[in-house]
Design goal:
Helix content is 46%, strand content 5%. Strands 1-2 form a two-stranded antiparallel ribbon. By secondary structure, the chain is mainly alpha-helical. It has helices spanning 15-27, 32-44, 48-52, 56-60, 96-109, 128-140, 148-160; strands at 68-71, 90-93.
Length: 165
């Protein structure tokens, strides 16, 4: 077989269009946890695989005043030799909207091990495709993927604050 050509993931990088996409996704029928997962993804700009596999133990340690989610290096996309290095933990500041989203998720899924559990098997994390399927059903197939929120966030923030890259 011919090797796959790797390119950029499709992403909407215009703030107005990103807002329209999120509104369309919110109006699309879906499981509430999937919608909240998409919201948390947009508010944190973490990798989708990292988000869906987040155990409640990580978010239970978040200080309400400090509001920083610490993702251990072991769960990050790093070289194997860096996975045990605590200095490479990823710090994600949480906005009040992110904290509110987490609070709603806690009410829905807080008794299980994962913030975003699988709809059929609560002891497993949400499917990697769940967020993508929501975007596809919202009319954004081949226009935006869950990983594209990282590009959306980066582009919009760099345009708005060019001196603070």
């Amino acid at each position: 077989m011919a090797p796959m050509k790797k390119g950029r993931q499709p992403a909407i990088t215009n703030l107005k269009k990103a807002r329209e996409m999120l509104l369309a996704a919110w109006k699309t029928p879906s499981h509430p946890v999937t919608k909240l997962g998409l919201r948390l993804l947009t508010l944190t700009a973490v990798r989708p695989g990292t988000l869906i596999s987040t155990p409640w133990a990580e978010l239970n340690d978040v200080d309400v005043d400090d509001a920083v989610w610490v993702i251990p290096a072991a769960r990050m996309k790093l070289l194997l030799q860096h996975k045990d290095d605590e200095t490479r933990d990823h710090l994600v500041p949480l906005s009040h909207q992110a904290k509110e989203t987490i609070a709603v998720l806690r009410a829905l899924t807080g008794r299980g091990p994962f913030v975003l559990p699988n709809g059929r098997h609560a002891h497993k994390p949400m499917s990697e495709n769940a967020l993508g399927y929501l975007l596809n059903r919202s009319g954004y197939h081949h226009k935006h993927v869950p990983h594209g929120f990282r590009s959306t966030f980066s582009t919009i923030m760099n345009e708005r604050h060019p001196t603070d890259r």
